[in-house]
Amino acid sequence: SEQREVVLLRFVADLSLEQVAHITSRRVGAVKTMQRRALTQLQTLVSPDPPLDAHQGEETASTATARRDLP
């Protein structure tokens, strides 16, 4: 898929966003979006925890502690 291609180029081939955009004939913003969607999808496949919402920002220490204390 297109998302797979972006992830492979970014993290396996270690290319920059600009390089991936050039290779795939896409804008940098489109590559960023595809990368984020692909990584979010990967996270849901490998992690029992739900992915962080981009609008919530980083997980805080208190929410991490609260989640760790859950049965």
Give a verbal description of the structure:
66% of the residues lie in helices and 0% in strands. The chain is built from 4 helices and no strands.
Which features does this protein show?
mainly alpha; 66% helix; 0% strand; 4 helices
What characterizes the major β-sheet?
A: none
Please provide the ordered H/E string of secondary-structure elements.
HHHH
Mean pLDDT figure: 82
How many separate helices? 4
Oligomer: single chain
- The rounded Rg comes to 15 Å
Helicity level, as a percent range?
Answer: 55-70%
> What proportion of the residues form beta strands (DSSP E)?
under 5%
Total beta-strand segments: 0
Low-confidence runs of at least 5 consecutive residues: none
Instruction: Tell the overall outline.
Output: elongated
Q: For the terminal residues, how far apart are their CA atoms?
A: 37 Å
Q: What class do helices, strands and sheet pairing give?
A: mainly alpha
In terms of topology, how is this protein built?
Blueprint: H1 2-12, H2 17-24, H3 28-46, H4 61-69
Helix pairs in contact: 1-3, 2-3
